[in-house]
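Practice problem: predict the structure.
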Amino acid sequence: MAQRVVGRSRQVVPSPPVHPAAADATSTDHAPVRRSTAPARLVREHPWVASAAVAASVLVVGLLTSVVADGTVFGATALGLLRADGPVAGLAVPVWLAGAGAGAVVLAARHVRPLTVTVTLAALAVLSLALGGVLGVLGLCLAWSLRAVASQRTTRTAVVTAVVVLLVVTTAAVRWQVLGLAEVVAWGGAGPLASIGGPPVQDLEVPDFSAARRTWTVLLLAVLLALGVASGEVVKDRRRHARAVAERWAALARERDTGAALARQSERARIAREMHDVVAHNVSVMVALSDGALAALSRAPDRSREAMAEVSRTGREAIADMRSVLGALHGDDDRDPLDASTAPTSTDLRATVERFRAAGLDVGAEGLGTPLPSDTAARLAVVRIVGEALTNVLRHAPGARTTVRAHRDATTLRVEVVSTAGTRAADATGSRRGVVGMQERAALLGGRLDVGPLADGGWAVRLTLPTSPAALTTPAPAEERPS
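Answer:
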């Protein structure tokens, strides 16, 4: 079932029934798509916004967690586990803050050199553990850098990098970390409790020193790194999907354009053959008349001479017109035209309407007695356009009520085929070649063809051709069925 996008919303609703030539006018221009959010558009247009947001989040988290780190140092010092004038007590919080600042700066280059940024952050993590005994927010920074690695490199590269980083930082934590997640949970509230007169810090329990206390730090780091890799894979999959969709629509657009070009070429070639048949026939007749006039020259020399001159002049004009039309149709393309079946060259508009009535189409007619151009090519174009429009009604809107109207004034011939909505299931397929062919015929004669839907769900094809009273021919009167 076809779909369309309503207004500016994302709601997708069924499209109305397909009407004449609607399938021919199909395109990918109105396919339902998911609209980007305002933040996504901002980041896409200004990539630095995303980097600034990540850096700001790292700094904010670093500042907030440094308060907890300061409380942890206070509790460990009060318990006598740390000397107040020792290096860890004096450097833990400054190193924590310095790590947050350095990580925010280094992350700015994560999309340009993701692997280099990851290695640099891992080195900063080892240095932070060696100097201050803390990891700080560098684990979070490593997660962000691994996200960039996973989104730009292969999954294997991202996983191997994450495992290596985890092993290196775990080794450094076991060797140098003093204040880890276990100490933060146990002593992080000592400072605030002491400041508000809470229980004495001497009541805090002293956990046994063991490398196993680093397990919580390692687990938290592993979770962060895994989340970074997973989110990067999601970004990569979305990018791959978007690229595939874009390539698909580009291929469809190329196919549509190629189909339209082939349709134009085919229609031009077919019209060229038809024009050749029509003009060649007229030229043959004129040549025969000219020969006859020349043969009777001795019996009626004056009239024969006039007839011969007129027929010869008309013949030369017909040949010139044929060459002009063929040149316009084929242009500079020397390739063989596409094969296309040539329909009968009847120029009887009334017979065309009756043929579709016999096929079961409910067709009303108004003005079928309107004089058509005396030029055979123009009459043929009118009949072919009406026939194509009625064919589209028969295919795409079965059961529709259709009216064919013809009208002329001093300078213009107007023909329109208007149909209502179909009442039965329609053939929704179409290549647009019928519409292209009708437009080509009208354009070659200096006219205009308007094709499109009506407000009530119907369809209209309106042809306008320039003409003059002298160029019109009046068909024999016949009974019309009113619409």
